[in-house]
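Replying to the earlier thread about multi-chain prediction with a worked example.

Input:
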Amino acid sequence: MTTAAQADAKVYPPSAEISARAHVDAKKYGEMYTASINDPVAFWGEQGKRVDWIKPYTQVKDVSYDLGSVGINWYADGTLNVSANCLDRHLNTRGDQTAIIWEPDDPNEPAQHITYAELHRRTCRMANILVSMGVRKGDRVVIYLPMIPEAAYAMLACARIGAIHSIVFAGFSPDALAARVNGCDAKVLITADEAPRGGRKTPLKSNADAALLHCKDTVKCLVVKRTNGQTTWIDGRDYDYNEMALEADDYCAPAEMDAEDPLFILYTSGSTGQPKGVVHTTGGYLVYAAMTHEITFDYHEGDVYWCTADVGWVTGHSYIVYGPLANGATTLMFEGVPTYPDASRFWQVCEKHKVNQFYTAPTALRALMGQGNEWVEKCDLSDLRTLGTVGEPINPEAWNWYNDVVGGGRCPIVDTWWQTETGGHLMTPLPGAHAMKPGSAMKPFFGIQPVVLDPQSGVEIDGNGVEGVLCIKDSWPGQMRTVWGDHERFEKTYFSDYKGYYFTGDGCRRDEDGDYWITGRVDDVINVSGHRMGTAEVESALVAHAAVAEAAVVGYPHDIKGQGIYCYVTLMNDREPSDELVKELRTWVRTEIGPIASPDVIQWAPGLPKTRSGKIMRRILRKIAENDFGSLGDTSTLADPSVVDNLIENRASK
Ligand code: 6R9
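Result:
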């Protein structure tokens, strides 16, 4: 796998035809971008009108990045309801239009087409069920569901009554789920009996049962019957969604919410400690999600749009549910995986539902690319217009394959760089406005001012052909507002290392043309198949095992996953290394965190390279994991340099 930086940067200018029909062409981008920077209040004041307000705002922006008093407010005196914006306001004009196309895991099960009118009814019923279970404005609801329409109903139902949802990806373990339920003190956990995926079933309800053993007795559990698989049932705690939905009223009035009331919490990994609860609020988030969805994908009325992410990640929040539905789009929700029943599934679904915009992760493309072109070529992909990627840097091989084989050379690829924290796209080429370079996120979105800083001095590096740490000057409406329950951690993580900027945690290069290339994380966060993981999380899972004395975890290049998880493990004195123990530790980490954290390599380490003050030298461990022994740098400052020789000698041959 070559990295983008190693490839000769071929440039693909936008075609005249695409520019002509696009919402934004090069000229308009230039004008709008300049306006957004010169007068953000006027610009965002105008864009705020994309959504319907109950009480219109008079204030647009009130932001401080000053340590000790970081505060981010957009449209603060306006009131609105997100679910009314995604549903009610469309009923007159597109009540009978499909809002959600649901494609089940099993291609033989029929797809569902849910109209805006039906989605409205379903959401209202779910909202009334939650109210009947005691959920009130400001309460937290954890959602642990498969990719089924009920996940969208649940999100919108929470938004409707002003409850704050926190979605936990269905691949997380009971322990991780319990931590998130407790972390936000949730009143209700919504789950399903089982989650079908790739022909297998994850027992979500029994995971939820296991999690709830570690939560307050008062947490209630609302269960969607997806497969009708066997589950245990606790009367008084467990509620049957399917039965209650038959009885529930079809209308629930939307609550009037302040623009800065929280809409959702989403836990994400950082470089230290436990995952943090990223908080997004109501008004600014919706404006930003709607605007980026329309402009980045060049979405037009009547298009069928498909984002393959899971609603458990931020991409699913902004670009399956909130952005598309606020725009009155038809959004496709897929329960399955790219390779089931075979490697042609994505393309079959595109053909079946005549998908116009397709948005996926590089890891999926790399996996499919390896299966050969015939899986793509046998499908009719002539309706595709815009292709997108997200989650990690895309290597040029995968980009070229996406462009040539999937897009037939006629579809612009939007390589969207953004984060859970940013709510929506911060950098991406726009289909009708910008040239594309394989692997480059190219240009900032409106209102976004990227800066490249010297990592040591924190000084802005001007000019082109430069590299450093990526920060963002000033705010945008979709920005996270705080860490749930820990505003100090919010300030410390994002605003303390480089004063006056939002620190992204990513490194970046601005090339000779002024285009941006994300070079990867500069902290101890790794990106495994587009999923963010703190190496510290995997380490603390490992050391929780009785056999493990110490562990250090780093990322290393992996052909399909982008990065794999490489673990150095020091055993307790009385334990011997064995293949069984490797298996046991893998299973252990999967149970502690979830299958996405499963270690790829475990190397026994009699000792770890440490400085004299006891700090693990991760730089060296990364090099060894990468099989790059020539550039270990200075090891003389280590407390015991000989441990490095041992690690190199025994580097796992995987
Ligand atoms: C949306 C999402 C964020 C981190 C981010 C960066 C990496 C995301 C990228 C990309 C290169 C892209 N990342 N998109 N790197 N090119 N187009 O993925 O959010 O899960 O919070 O991850 O992912 O390192 O900092 P999240």
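The mean pLDDT is 95.

Feel free to reuse this layout for your own posts.
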